[in-house]
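[agent] plan:
  1. take the single chain provided in the ticket
  2. run structure prediction with default settings
  3. attach structure tokens to the ticket
  4. add a short note for the reviewer (M.T.)
[agent] executing step 1
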Amino acid sequence: MSSATSPTQTSPAEAGSPHTAATPLTLARCRTLVRPALVDAVGRLHPWPGEMAAFSLGWCGVGGTPDPGGSQGKGVRQALAVLGAEAVGASGETAVPGAVAVELVHVFSLLHDDIMDGDETRRQRETVWKAYGTGPAVLAGDALLAIALQTLSETPGALGGAAVRLLSGTLTRLVRGQAEDLLFADRPWTGPGAVRPDAYRSMAEDKTGALLGCAAGLGALLGGAPAGTVAALDRAGRHLGVAFQAVDDLLGIWGDPVRTGKPVHGDLRQRRKTYPVLAALASDGPPARELAALLASPLPLDEPTALRAATLADAAGGRAATLAEARRHLDAARACLRGVPLAPRTVREIEGLLDYLLHRNV
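[agent] step 2 finished; step 3 output follows
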């Protein structure tokens, strides 16, 4: 089997109710709206970092060669920005500068994260640092961050300054989340210094949730919404981020590599402290103790050992706890949306996106 999921178990993609069928169309509509401005922003970069940015976005291969098979992602952050504006009664076009900025910041963070984590593949091809070198990849990330801030600062009207302040605060949270994630690697698996699920949750809210919240909040802000509505959409996005990270962690252990583009049991083999493992260890039963011993061993985790670790994490409740965590945060996101006056049709689109991300399998 290419995945640890057995025939009698449900994967994250299969659990719960099916996602809203219209969500892929919503994502495509938002990507189409944002794409011209995104292309224009990347085109303003120096040709070399611009090429690396285009490669990371799935627009081309190494050297700028055509790559029709390159994955360009779903554009979740772009969609949240556009839907944030539409939810407060504005045109989605008003959110385009914010959508471009958050997408570029997202790609910037991936370029730098891949270097820090040593990841050599993303979306079934080489990462930018592996294809171009570490220094060039750092430069491309820096260029993306710079053009993101410049794009947002040039937003027409009086809201550009507030938008830049919102994104700047988000960048601070992103750095804090990444710092915690890196520090987790040196902490023990058990004992007083171990990483607890609540600490991981806080890290995920900063590292993943902050930018998703910023996307929705920027859309509302650029759409002219009052501060309370902007804050509610920001909070909804942060909850979505924790849920998104939880599902990503599930896929990192039990996902099908053909669908995820990641090696089977990759997170376990690299001994990453992800939510399913931390939740399993917190259960403190026999499977948890055996799992802790495997992870603390100085020996490399070969495939049979990684498969055993995945089985133990499941038996200790790690998979179930992580799926429950994702559902709790999606419910909290829905509560945020329902707590302020928003366009009902757009709220349904956003809620469809929440379900879609919970049950995604790629």
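[agent] step 4 note for reviewer: Residues 1-19 have pLDDT under 50 and may be disordered.
[agent] ticket updated
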